[in-house]
Design brief:
With 411 residues, the protein is an alpha/beta fold. The chain is built from 16 helices and 17 strands. Helix 3 crosses helix 4. The two termini are 45 Å apart.
């Protein structure tokens, strides 16, 4: 079973609005066993919309449309659908009553322009909008399903979850789909693929593996499709256990786990605390840690010591160490970690110092060179990395790497 998603709106094509609807809908369709064949964005032009609908009808079983259902003159989707399905708009009393109830809940009167939203194509089945005024519309033509919804994300999501997905599942016999995502850190995509090549080749034919790299992290997503969900889940579990034996040092979590949340849970369970001294990461590690609710229990604070005088005056880094070795060095980053640990009286400390870029690199210390140190109650260790030339990715990779170094230290 295949679907195409069509999003309508000039604002999407000029970059004024980012199309988040398609990504969310694709995820939800995939979870119920419907493959998304194509995602298309089109302008608010009748002929463009008509051509996209006609093309989609030739390729897929289900066409999901969002956008262009508002009450203003530039919203032309309903009229265009009438032309495509060779029908006319008719006033739907049930839809109008729902619109009236919605406005009454806001202590507002229904205007004529809003009343017109109760006009829908005669041959469609209206879909209730519990979050707004524009109804959704369900059409069936030549054994194909067409669904049109508002482009407002929270209205679209409500319709998908409460009406459309259940209706699709009832109408079609859909395959079971199971996903498992293994989260890895500390190894690049190509190196990882070499290590797990034999495991990947031995996967059953109904399990597909996808590599999903991002700065500092490579996600491995297994997708299994078949008729029996329990069989799929058992095989996914078995393959995950095999993978754990092959790359135990690189796996830090699964599915929607966040490294900062895993670290926070470890610290909380052990009743231990953390502080950070950040130079090249500029507070990004502290940001990740404090993005987790309840992090005040274990996170005591941070010093963003970007300038060398802050490293020496506030953190007490030896000035001679900076002169002799440079701020981006093992000696300096170790002192940063030890001194912030003592200054904040915590169990663990993270320190970073590096050349984030795009300028500042030298032959000995090119852009991307980063030292990360972890101090615990009794010792401190540091490791050097060369991340690359992109400043934003360097900051993200350094921060994720530091958190995983801390996780391993706690464990």
């Amino acid at each position: 079973m295949q679907a195409e998603i069509i999003t309508i709106g000039d604002e999407l094509l000029i970059g004024q609005v980012v199309d988040t609807n398609s990504a969310w809908m694709a995820q939800q369709l995939n979870l119920v066993g419907i493959d998304v064949y194509q995602i298309t964005s089109v302008s608010d032009q009748k002929q463009h919309i008509l051509k996209s609908l006609s093309d989609a009808e030739q390729e897929v079983d289900i066409i999901i449309i969002t956008g262009g259902l508002g009450p203003t003159n530039d919203d032309i989707t309903k009229k265009t659908l009438c032309e495509f399905f060779n029908t006319t708009l008719v006033f739907n009393e049930n839809t109008y009553q729902k619109i009236q109830s919605f406005f009454k809940s806001l202590n507002l009167k229904v205007t004529e322009i809003n009343k017109a939203q109760a006009e829908i194509p005669a041959n469609c089945e209206p879909i209730t909008n519990n979050c707004g005024t524009a109804p959704g519309m369900w059409f069936e033509k030549n054994n194909k399903i067409f669904v049109s919804m508002p482009g407002v994300p929270f209205e679209m999501k409500q319709m998908m979850e409460e009406s459309i997905l259940p209706k699709l599942k009832n109408k079609f016999k859909l395959s079971a789909v199971c996903h498992k995502t293994i989260l890895t850190q500390g190894i690049g995509e190509s190196f990882l693929s070499e290590i797990i090549a034999n495991w990947e080749k031995a996967l059953p034919s109904y399990i597909k593996l996808a590599y999903l790299p991002s700065p500092g992290i490579v996600r491995l997503r297994m997708t299994a499709k078949g008729n029996d969900e329990n069989t799929l889940l058992n095989e996914i579990k078995k393959q995950t256990e095999f993978l754990q034996q092959i790359i135990p040092d690189y796996i830090y979590g699964y599915d929607n786990d966040r490294l900062e949340a895993i670290v926070g849970k470890l610290l909380k369970n052990k009743n231990e605390t953390i502080a950070t001294a950040e130079s090249c990461t500029g507070g990004y590690i502290a940001h990740l840690i404090t993005s987790i609710p309840g992090s005040s229990v274990y996170f005591k604070g941070s010093v963003i010591c970007y300038a060398n005088e802050i490293k020496t005056k506030l953190l007490g880094v030896n000035k001679e160490s900076i002169i002799a070795n440079g701020a981006v060095s093992e000696e300096v980053v170790k002192q940063m970690a030890l001194n912030i640990r003592n200054l904040f009286n915590v169990d663990y400390a993270i320190a970073t110092s590096g050349v984030a870029g795009p300028d500042g690199g030298t032959e000995n210390k090119p852009v991307g060179t980063t030292w990360i140190a972890i101090a615990n109650k009794t010792d401190v260790f540091a490791k050097k990395f060369t991340f690359g030339e992109n400043r934003e990715r360097n900051i993200q990779r350094a921060s994720i790497t530091a958190l995983n170094m801390l996780r391993k230290q706690i464990v």
